[in-house]
Amino acid sequence: MKKLVVITGASSGFGKALALEFNKAGYPLLLVARRVELLKELNLSNTICEKVDVTNRESLETAIRKAEQIYGETDLIINNAGLMLLGNLETQNPSEWQKMLDVNVMGVMHGMQIVMNDMKKRQCGTIINISSIAGVKPFGNHAAYCASKYGVVGLSEVARGELSSHNVRVMRICPGAVDTELVHHTTSDELKDAYFGWKEATGVGSITANDVAKTIKFAYELPQGVNLREIQIADTKQDA
Q: Taking a C-beta distance cutoff of 8 angstroms, is the pair 120, 166 a contact?
């Protein structure tokens, strides 16, 4: 049997596409999300679904240890759970900054910390963190979101260096604009309208969550000695 894959934020978007892609390839899965009913609706074989908020480290670790008792130790964790709450730094409610930092940064750090020691002992394992093009390029009205995703890039690179001598891979994936639920988290209708207007004006819209999932699976299935440290993947028509 193939080794255990853990996917956070698996109820929609990239997480859902990843779940379907890895399940199709025969991997046992632990899928975690706050909306566990959507995970169960996928009805995937060899899959454990758990209601977890990644900001709660204890809850996430409990779910991972439960899955490991059944499928063996985690070989891949994809820290995908995230929020995108667009807003101008001058006017955005600081509570929205905190939500993004808690989920987008602390949630990733929780997932990494839970599995990395076991991976070091085994001299094998892969951690894939979902950042964003907004983690390598600045965008207007993305200040706090950029801060969180730049944070994911930074912590991933530090962890990669620390784990490299133990043969553990850390990869960061930086998608551009892809149709998922993310933009709908934004509370400003004006900013949401502007985002969709930009997509319509530029023609950006060809790339799908499934394209991103296939790319991630490809990167993971390369030999353990090959690490695609950072992948930026975006619609060809996206110029930034």
A: yes
